[in-house]
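Hello,

I think I submitted the magnesium ion job twice by accident. Can you confirm which output corresponds to this input? Input:
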Amino acid sequence: MTEAALRVRGVSIAFGGVSALDSVDVDFPEGEITGIIGPNGAGKTTLLNVVCGMNPPDAGDVLLEDRSITGLKPNRIAALGLRRTFQSSQLFAGMTVLENMMAGLHLMSTTGLVGAVLRSKRMREEEEEMRERALTALDFVGFRHFANRAGDALSFGQQRIIEIARTLIHEPKVVLLDEPAVGLSVNRVAELDALLRRIRDERGVTLVMIEHVIRLVMGVSDRVVVLNSGRKIAEGLPETVRSDPAVAEAYLGHQAEG
Ligand SMILES: Nc1ncnc2c1ncn2[C@@H]1O[C@H](COP(=O)(O)OP(=O)(O)O)[C@@H](O)[C@H]1O
Ligand SMILES: [Mg+2]
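Support: Only one job matched these inputs. Its output is below.
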């Protein structure tokens, strides 16, 4: 059996008394793509928010490579090798693509007397290293030629790819993607499918993807997990999940989304 890179154990969380996740257990096998599907309001984004530390759970545990990360701050979890993208985020207009890639990276801070002397040199070195890594990540997604373009000169679909490239800068173990195919044309979805496979196969990254585009999620995922009303109702191979009557029932009335 494949080792799990990420484990969610008995996770529950409620907002204002309303349960968003109820005792959810999921293992995310290392080096695989796990798709998470479910109707609107099922708890998919909340699950990602819990895993990345934005919403500490009321109960349960999250383990990254068998180490509990429950309750750690998002920055700390990111530094341990878990990165994410956000639903419908956009690049900053006044910055180049490369600057966007590097924005918000937590550059090392050296403190103290010796630090004050070393700071500028080390920060310059570190910034240079981050620039190189960012360019390598842009290269990986085939967008190196966009490095010095204005962020908002890129199409919405291209910006989504940049957002994914950004997660690769620090050679993450796990990347969480929240609806990466939203608003993409059919051709762009095919490119995204190929890119996700390359991130898995060439980078060995464990991917967790929430996705409404069923064609993408069923095609690219090694395993699929189905949430409905905060509970896991099915999981398994895409074809198994696809033919599960409980899944069809959960989606009744939500056909327009798929
Ligand atoms: N920060 C929050 N405050 C209040 N309710 C929230 C919050 N985040 C999520 N919820 C609620 O939790 C449920 C699950 O939401 P969400 O995880 O966004 O679903 P999905 O991503 O599957 O559409 C919904 O009922 C939603 O309204
Ligand atoms: Mg969502």
